[in-house]
Design brief:
With 462 residues, the protein is mainly beta. It has four helices and 33 strands. Helix content is 4%, strand content 40%. A hairpin with a 3-residue loop joins β22 and β23. The protein is globular and about 55 Å long. The N terminus is likely disordered.
């Protein structure tokens, strides 16, 4: 066990005061033995991380490098993150202190190896390896990207994180970083980029989405924004018309149509979804009928889907996410719909599949356990999963509805505790509100070694 006092430059007895928590009673709490009593006053605003980072004690430094998102940001820092050493194994196990992460976060994205966020136009990142973060030293410390050639320190507008690579936009310029073995960075080669590298000189990049060894983006001026992809094309997920081969440069797949812009894109393990003028288009592996197209076959070019009944396409989709088993979509009415297998639930308190060739509405104010009871209302603005984690992407779904954080899925297992405070349901099929007294501004879940390990959240007062 490393010397915590020396490693973090703090006295164990003062951890509570630093975090705004009550002092330990009955002597110092031992986080390794999990003995003693620790009384907490849990923050309700600011950045909070729910869950637990794998089986090792959170202050333990892994010599193998298998340090996941909830832990690497603790390394080499005294201000960004403190452990709350909860002994109840029931929910909040790492609290992000106000001194380090008390910022107005507008975007969070993370994988097991990379954490990135945007606040005030500033881009911050951390990783267990400097190969996957812009900083050349202390990669595990959350650090702002500054003085990058060609970029403004406050010009960052979008960021997306893959397993071991990152895409980000600054004042319309696209920058990439990390592993590139399948051409997923679109740099024209397959060499790793250990610092943020600009793609060409164009200044009209709009949205980015990092998948699993492939990437997607929207590019162009308003009124003519086109859809681009690069990287591995397994299962047709790049929409190139086939199911094999890699592209090492960004290629326009579908242009705008009669001033109908592409407005949203998401890339996952083996698929890509995108929205143009409210219409959903899909490419890639259609397993479990998750595209809502009455098929499990690969889709090799971007094809319209998103039916709301047996014959009618929805034309007012605005965003969504696709897991290994299902797709979840939000429309302009704030409704949430899903298609595919509800292996860990559909948010409405049941495990009813939607495999009839179209999407089924899961949000609404019906009784719990009835499809149409997810969230209690129709005011969804975000839904997300650990999109690059194959079948594990279904284990935990997070959403923002009426400014409140909702979550459902599989929680608990092995040494990972229950993620939602006070809830010990292992397969939670009902969307459940978290920290209901506060508004959730941004959230993203991440996956660890054996099951979902946590979710990063940013709360503000209503």
């Amino acid at each position: 066990m490393p010397d915590i006092d020396q490693k973090n430059g703090i006295d164990m007895a003062n951890i509570a005061s630093i975090n705004g928590q009550d002092a330990p009673s009955g002597g110092a709490y031992d986080p390794v033995a999990d003995t003693g009593t620790y009384t907490e006053t849990v923050p309700t605003t600011g950045m909070i991380h729910y869950g637990y980072a794998a089986a090792r004690p959170p202050m333990n430094t892994s010599s193998s490098g298998s340090i996941y998102s909830g832990r690497f940001m603790m390394e080499n820092t005294t201000t960004a993150l403190k452990s709350n050493f909860s002994s109840d194994k029931d929910g909040i196990h790492q609290i992000y202190g106000l001194s380090g992460l008390d910022k107005n976060w507008t975007k969070i994205d993370c994988s097991q190896y990379i954490w990135a966020g945007i606040e005030g136009g500033r881009l911050w990142m951390a990783s267990y390896s400097t190969n996957f973060s812009h900083q050349s030293t202390n990669g595990r410390t959350l650090t702002q990207v500054t003085s990058l050639s060609g970029a403004s320190d406050t010009g960052w507008t979008d960021v997306s994180v893959g397993t071991d690579f990152l895409l980000a936009i600054n004042s319309g310029k696209l920058f990439v970083l990390g592993t590139n073995g399948d051409g997923q960075l679109g740099t024209g080669d397959t060499s790793i980029k250990t610092t943020l590298t600009q793609i060409g000189s164009d200044t009209d990049w709009y949205k980015v989405a990092a998948g699993n060894n492939h990437s997607a983006a929207i590019k162009g001026a308003s009124g003519s924004r086109a859809l681009y992809t690069t990287g591995e094309n397994r299962d047709g997920k790049c929409g190139s018309g086939d199911t094999s081969g890699d592209d090492t440069s960004w290629i326009e797949r579908v242009s705008a149509d009669a001033s109908e812009d592409w407005t949203f894109v998401e890339a996952g393990q083996s698929h890509t979804i995108a929205i143009k003028a409210g219409k959903l288009f899909v490419a890639g592996d259609g397993r479990n009928e998750r595209f809502g197209n009455n098929s499990t076959s690969d889709v090799t070019t971007f094809t319209q889907s998103g039916k709301t009944d047996g014959s009618t396409f929805g034309t007012n989709w605005v965003s969504g996410t696709v897991t290994y088993y299902k797709s979840l979509l939000i429309n302009s009415n704030g409704e949430c719909w899903y298609a595919g297998s509800a292996i860990y639930g559909n948010g409405s308190g049941n495990f009813t599949n939607a495999q009839s060739g179209y999407h089924v509405k899961t949000s609404g104010n019906a009784s719990d356990g009835t499809t149409g009871s997810f969230g209690g209302s129709d005011d969804f603005t975000f839904i997300g999963c650990t999109r690059t984690q194959s079948s594990n992407s279904d284990k935990f779904i997070v959403a923002i509805n009426n400014n409140k954080l909702y979550a459902f899925g599989k929680q608990g297992g092995n040494d990972t505790p229950f993620i939602i405070p006070g809830n010990t349901t292992s397969s939670l099929s009902q969307g459940t509100v978290v920290n209901s007294a506060k508004n959730c501004q941004v959230v993203y879940p991440w996956y660890g070694s054996s099951s979902i390990s946590g979710m990063f959240t940013y709360f503000v007062d209503p």
